[in-house]
Specification:
- There is one protein chain.
- The chain is an alpha/beta fold.
- The protein has 2 domains: 144 residues, Rossmann fold (3-Layer(aba) Sandwich); 64 residues, ACT domain (Alpha-Beta Plaits, 2-Layer Sandwich), CATH 3.30.70.
- The strands form 3 sheets. Strands 2-1-3-6-12-13 form a 6-stranded mixed beta sheet.
- Strand 1, helix 2 and strand 2 form a beta-alpha-beta unit.
- The longest helix has 16 residues.
- It binds ribulose-5-phosphate.
């Protein structure tokens, strides 16, 4: 089984999980990235069993529409029952690093607006300590240098992601060389820097269920009580 097969297997398992609770009024939160794209393909196969979706990026909205799934504005839907999305890293507490695809802010908004966040990954993303994957931080363009200097004071090594503008018109700093032992505290510290829109740590609102595609099959992990 290659990495794509494992991502697809996790996406299929997520659909199987939510399917019994979908009805003609259901609006599903949908994430961004290659694993989320497999989920979009799966959702399209049951198109008649739910109403539509809220997308965490312009790219996912485009893919959903192309697959015949109506896309709604989150402001009109109220709380969503499910949000399904990938991640760049996940630890045993279901804390995540996200934002490799630069969609972190909208992803965090949809996750915050959803009762259940199901995170789908292949097993290479499962880590004990977050931080090998550079932590994305979305920043208002004029604050780029200021925020970078403040991140250095916090012990990180920020690198400007050249050529990338987020769906919200901002830039991304990828923070290298972190060993994130206290994800909640770092998430809050970064969010308190003036000019930061949000950062890719999903620890204050972690996933509720992690579905991991492995060579042996799909594994489900819930956070310890
Ligand atoms: C996009 C994300 C993605 O979920 C993350 O980058 C994982 O992507 P992929 O499923 O392609 O490995 O956070 O901003």
């Amino acid at each position: 089984m290659n990495q794509d097969d494992m991502k697809r297997a996790a996406a299929k398992a997520a659909l199987k999980k939510i399917l019994p609770q979908l009805d003609e009024k259901s609006v599903v939160g949908v994430g961004t990235g290659s694993t989320a794209n497999y989920f979009i393909e799966e959702l399209a196969t049951v198109r008649d069993l739910f109403d539509g979706a809220v997308a965490s990026s312009e790219e996912s909205a485009r893919r959903l529409k192309e697959a015949g799934v109506p896309v709604y504005d989150l402001n009109g839907t109220g709380t969503l029952e499910f949000y399904v999305d990938g991640a760049d890293e996940a630890n045993g507490n279901l804390h995540l690093i996200k934002g490799g695809g630069a969609a972190l802010t909208r992803e965090k908004i949809v996750a915050a607006s959803s009762r259940r966040f199901i995170c789908i990954i292949d097993h290479s993303k499962r880590v004990d300590v977050l931080g090998d994957f550079p932590l994305p931080v979305e920043v208002i363009p004029m604050a780029r240098s200021y925020v970078a200097r403040e991140i250095v004071k916090l012990g990180g090594d920020p690198v400007f992601r050249e050529g990338v503008t987020t769906d919200n018109g901002n830039i991304i700093l990828d923070v290298h060389n972190l060993r994130i032992l206290d994800p909640v505290t770092l998430e809050e510290a970064l969010n308190h820097l003036t000019g930061v829109v949000t950062n890719g740590l999903f620890a204050r609102r972690p996933a509720d269920l992690l579905i991991v595609g492995t060579p042996q099959g799909v594994e489900e992990i819930t956070a310890p009580a």
